[in-house]
Write a structure and sequence with these properties.
heterodimer, A: 318 residues, alpha+beta, Multidrug efflux transporter AcrB transmembrane fold, Alpha-Beta Plaits, 2 domains, four-stranded antiparallel sheet, 69% helix, B: 460 residues, Gyrase A, domain 2, 12 helices
Chain lengths: 318, 460
């Protein structure tokens, strides 16, 4: 416990080991043209998602062939919980008053007929969502804007509250760590298990950014307090002491939040699964990064500054 | 002031309880009406249809904010004719209109009705392209292009409307001098002026009356129309069929959008599915809350119990605010609420951990608790502000789903700062006055944690 700062290189190394594979898969997304890496839901790509449960279970490939025969070879069919199938196609049946195109459900009706012919009657229909290219383009821009603004907001607030850019920067590094860990997890899960990210995922990212900083602030606050109380003690010792003092709170808070998220993950269904999973990973990573990255980073920074000062002083005396 | 705090908290609590539990409460709303206080559920939880429209431009004309507001009003009127209960029609950003219709079973028909532009344009057809009729001789001179007939789409991008349906003051079904059924309309002064000027200068020219870009009729100007009264004729030998004429009149009178709209996103959720999600989410939330309660009790004992009371207070208060505002609860909103419970507990954990530290160095329970509150305050404020920063960014820049979640988070953070600090402190202060509640054990300290040398002082 008293060696967190002394072992900071190991903790940095661990973070690198976790983030680098994730980063690799994130970067692979644009490079592979979407074959590997993050999988985007129709919120980002535009398209129609139609959810239904057939009376007799059907193979996704049978359904895909039926939809393709109805004029949609681009369709992707996936199976979700409780026997539901999701058919994703390009955006269907969007009416445009300026061109007068009004297909009001006709395209989907065609697909439905083809599916029923192939696999028999449909027991239950869930939701049908269509996202047009305008909305999906909006969201992609919005997502980037939100994360950048959120990060800048936190950087400014921390720098202001602690009157020190280093505190702001250290908090920023910690939260970027959490963003990369979460995004990386989904990039890997997207490649391996086809897990998709949607509009709510963006919300989760911002929530993670806000929450990750909670932990960082608590430790930093204690460092600030101890700097006054134990003036003159080595900076590394003060930081280590502050981390140990706040460890109980960090673990307990994270535990309560993770408990609630776990309950949602296990019992709640529908569109929030991804959202809750993202929060779970992000908050876990947030606790790690604020204890083992943000505060040690402050020490590393301080030690470097002192080393530079010392060598400058030596140079002057020489 | 200090003495009034307990009563204030009690009053807030009772008020919140009343708002949460009493049925049939009403709030005064705009226009002297009332609005029932109820928990509003989003479409993902109750089922229904949500359509997002983008207002399109016509040529190089872009809709102004006033135009978008007009379009919103017209769509709302169209929605009201369908009889859907509790419809929501609102503008979003500079050119978006969002329509939410709970419990709609026939989305296609409603979409067809709402999305119709009903845009009537009066479009001059230039002589050199479309030809003209010499009024004196009755001779027709053909142009490069044929005059479009009824039912064809206008594809010539060079055509510009003279004016649109918004210049129509009134309209009715009428009979012309030859007994054919026609649709008559009267123009407002601006349209009448434009029409008079153009018809005077272009006798014999063709013009097209188009509805949603499709030609209804393309007559030529037989005489200058200076009084602002005009007729559209069409159909067969006896004119328009009655239903077609009535439809046209309806659109002309109050159905015409100044700019066409296009669907950019449509979601429809079956009500049964929404209900299933709701019960799952509520159950999950309850499990989460019970686990948090147990955790606090096991970890902080008496103090944890007090925090749980504050947490109950927090939940009552937040739900009451959700009902009054009202905040529309979506699946994400419920997740946000459950998450905010975890965050609300954070303030108490900070305070209690600080209290434990003070107890460990030998302070008595009373001063230790007070020190816990005052020392934890900085961290609580700083961390909650950081949550508020991100929540406000989500609220300001996010789309509607994201906004809903952000609002839940903002309300949650603000309320939790009140309950976790004020309510917890009030109860704890009352509790620690009693000797039997003054043992550090009750605040999560085990006997071995206190240095033996200090045992005596902390009792004294």
């Amino acid at each position: 416990m008293d060696k967190i700062i002394a072992r900071k290189r190991w903790f940095f190394l661990f973070s690198l080991l976790v983030t680098i594979p994730g980063l690799f898969f994130i970067l692979a997304t644009p490079l592979s043209g979407g074959q590997v890496g993050l999988r985007f839901a129709i919120d980002f790509t535009g398209g129609t998602a139609w959810e239904f449960r057939p009376e007799t279970p059907a193979a996704t490939e049978t359904v895909r062939l039926a939809v393709a025969s109805a004029g949609h070879p681009e369709a992707i069919v996936t199976e979700v919980a409780s026997g539901f199938l999701i058919v994703k196609t390009k955006p269907l049946d969007l009416q445009d008053g300026s061109t007068g195109s009004a297909t009001a459900g006709q395209e989907l009706a065609k697909i439905r007929t083809a599916v029923v012919t192939a696999i028999g009657p449909i027991a239950e229909e869930g939701s049908v969502s269509t996202v047009g290219p305008v909305v999906s383009k909006d969201l992609t821009q919005q997502a980037a804007l939100l994360v950048v603004l959120g990060s800048i907001g936190i950087l400014l607030w921390m720098t202001y509250r602690f009157r020190n850019l280093r505190f702001g920067m250290a908090a920023l590094v910690a939260l970027l760590h959490d963003v990369i860990v979460t995004l990386g997890f989904f990039a890997i899960a997207g490649t391996v298990a086809g897990l998709e990210i949607d509009a709510l995922f963006v919300t989760a990212m911002l929530t993670i950014i806000g929450f990750s900083v909670h932990d960082t602030i608590v430790v930093f606050d204690r460092i600030r307090e101890n700097l006054v109380r134990h003036a003159g003690a080595p900076f590394g010792d003060i930081v280590n002491h502050s981390i140990v003092q706040t460890l109980g709170r960090s673990f307990n808070t994270t535990a309560t939040v993770l408990i609630t998220l776990l309950a949602l993950l296990v019992f709640a269904g529908g569109s929030i699964r991804t959202f809750v999973l993202a929060l779970f990973i992000g908050i876990l990573s947030g606790t790690y990064s604020s204890i083992f990255n943000a505060s040690p980073l402050l020490v590393w920074w301080e030690e470097r500054a002192q080393a530079r000062k010392a060598s400058a002083a030596r140079a002057r005396t020489a | 002031m200090r003495r009034a705090t307990p009563f204030l908290i009690l009053a807030v609590g009772l008020l919140a309880l009343a708002i949460d539990l009493l049925p049939n409460l009403k709030l005064p709303a705009a226009g002297g009406t009332t609005r029932p206080i109820e928990t509003k559920l989003g479409l993902d939880l109750r089922g229904g249809l949500r359509v997002e429209y983008q207002v399109q431009k016509v040529g190089d004309q872009v809709a102004t904010a006033a135009d978008v507001a007009t379009i919103r009003d017209i769509i709302e009127r169209r929605v009201n004719t369908t009889g859907v209960a509790e419809p929501l029609v609102q503008t979003q950003g500079s050119d978006r209109i969002v329509v939410e219709l709970p419990g709609v079973s026939d989305p296609d028909a409603i979409r067809a009705l709402l999305g119709t532009t009903g845009r009537l344009d009066l479009i001059p057809l230039p002589r050199d392209t479309y030809g003209y009729v010499d009024l004196a001789s009755g001779q027709t001179t053909t142009g490069v292009s044929a005059v479009p007939t009824a039912g064809t789409k206008l594809t010539d991008t060079k055509l510009k409307p003279l004016f649109s349906g918004d210049q129509i003051a009134s309209s009715n079904v009428a009979t012309d001098s030859t007994g054919r059924r026609v649709v008559a309309f009267t123009l407002k002064s601006e349209g009448a002026g434009l029409f008079a000027t153009w018809t005077k200068a272009n006798l014999g020219s063709y013009f097209a009356i188009s509805l949603d870009g499709t030609v209804v009729s393309a007559p030529y100007i037989q005489s200058a129309i200076t009084g602002g009264e005009a007729q559209i004729s069409g159909g067969g030998a006896s004119g328009f069929p009655l239903d077609e004429a009535t439809n046209l009149v309806t659109i002309l009178k109050f159905g015409s959008l100044p700019f066409p709209i296009a669907e950019i996103g449509v979601t429809s959720v079956k009500a049964t599915l929404g209900a299933a999600f709701l019960s799952q989410a509520v159950f999950a939330g309850l499990v989460g809350i019970v686990l948090v309660f147990l955790f606090m009790l096991l970890h902080y004992r008496l103090a944890g119990g007090v925090a749980n009371i504050a947490l109950l207070f927090y939940m009552l208060l937040v739900l009451a605010i959700f009902r009054v505002v009202p905040v529309t609860l979506t699946l994400a909103g419920i997740a946000g609420f459950v998450l905010s419970i975890g965050m609300a507990v954070d303030a108490n954990i900070l305070i209690f951990e600080r209290t434990k530290e003070e107890l460990r160095v030998g302070k008595r329970v009373g001063p230790a608790v007070e020190a816990g509150f005052s020392r934890a305050w900085n961290s609580i404020l700083d961390s909650n502000v950081s949550s508020l920063i991100t929540a406000f960014i989500l609220f300001y820049f996010g789309s509607s789903t994201i906004k809903g979640f952000a609002l839940v988070l903002i309300i949650g953070v603000l309320c939790s700062m009140f309950t976790a600090i004020t309510v917890t402190r009030l109860i704890l202060r009352a509790v620690i006055k009693r000797d039997r509640f003054a043992s550090p054990y009750l605040y999560g300290i085990s006997a071995g944690d206190i240095p033996a040398a200090l045992e005596g002082t902390q009792r004294g």
